[in-house]
Each structure stands twice: as structure tokens, then as C-alpha cells.
Amino acid sequence: MKVSVFRKAHFNAAHRLYNPNWSDQKNQEVFGLCNNANYHGHNYELEVKVTGEVDPETGYVIDMKILKDLIYQEIELRFDHKNLNLDTEEFKNLIPSAENICYVIWKILREKLPEKFDLMIRLYETPRNFVEYPA
Ligand code: NI
Asked: Would you say 82 and 88 are in contact if contact means Cβ atoms under 8 Å apart?
């Protein structure tokens, strides 16, 4: 029997949406407020969904303590209270849109989770705007 388990996490981070290949005017037209040169912050809410077989010996898909620690070590410590553009390797050359942040989080966790699990990431940039990967 396969079951999906979910773990929520949270981080605050600042970002700026800016494409260095474009003029300042085009950046302003496309990204508007999110192009603010002095950055702005979001309270990101993260949902991590892990799907797998229930282990008959534990009744677990995955030990939630292990999942919690993995998210803390790999995502929260890396991104919480950071300026994503300036402070992180991941977004030095990648626009830190919710879409790209979601994909980067998936990629980091995917490499740490055993292959037998399916992984899906949902990231809320605001209570009303959220993205999911894989689509
Ligand atoms: Ni923003």
C-alpha cells in the first residue's frame, strides 16, 4: 500500500526578480515591484510530499523525524533569513522566482531521499500564490 506523507516548513528570505540580459526598463516592465533594486522579503511556506510503500514493520512510509531533519538541514539552514540573490550559490545565476525556488528545493531533496520515494514540492510565496514541482 502506497501512502503520501507531508511535512510543512517555513523560511523567510529576500529576493529580487531581475534578468541581467535585459535593460532596466524591460526589467521594470516585466517584474514591476518584484524588481525593486533593494530587494523585498517573503514568508515562504514549504510543503514536502513523500509517497511510498508503508513499511509493515514500522507502519511508516518514512520516519517523520528524518524528513523533518532533512528539510531543516538542507533547506531551512540554507535559505532562512538569506538574500537569495546575494547569499546563495543556487541563485547567483538563476532568477529566484517561486518556480525556480521550488525546483531547486526539489532537486536538493531528491538527491538526499532514497529513490524508492516519490517527491513533490509545493511552495507558497504568499498565502494566495503557490507553485508545485513536479507539475
Ligand atoms: Ni517577490
From this structure: yes
Cα–ligand 1 centroid distance for 32 (angstroms): 10
- Annotated active-site residue in 10, 29, 53, 81: 81
Assess whether 81 carries a catalytic annotation: yes
pLDDT in tens, the chain (135 residues): 999 999 999 999 999 999 999 999 999 999 999 999 999 999 999 999 999 999 999 999 999 999 999 999 999 999 999 999 999 999 999 999 999 999 999 999 999 999 999 999 999 999 999 999 999
Catalytic, out of 15, 34, 42, 102: 34
Decide: pTM greater than 0.70.
yes
Residue 109 and residue 74 in contact, taking contact as beta carbons nearer than 8 Å? yes
Catalytic residue among 76, 89, 125, 132: 125
Q: Among 1, 8, 2, 16, which residue's Cα sits nearest to residue 84?
A: 16
Residue range of the domain that includes 62? 2-133
CATH code assigned at 77: 3.30.479.10
CA 114 to ligand 1 center in whole angstroms: 32
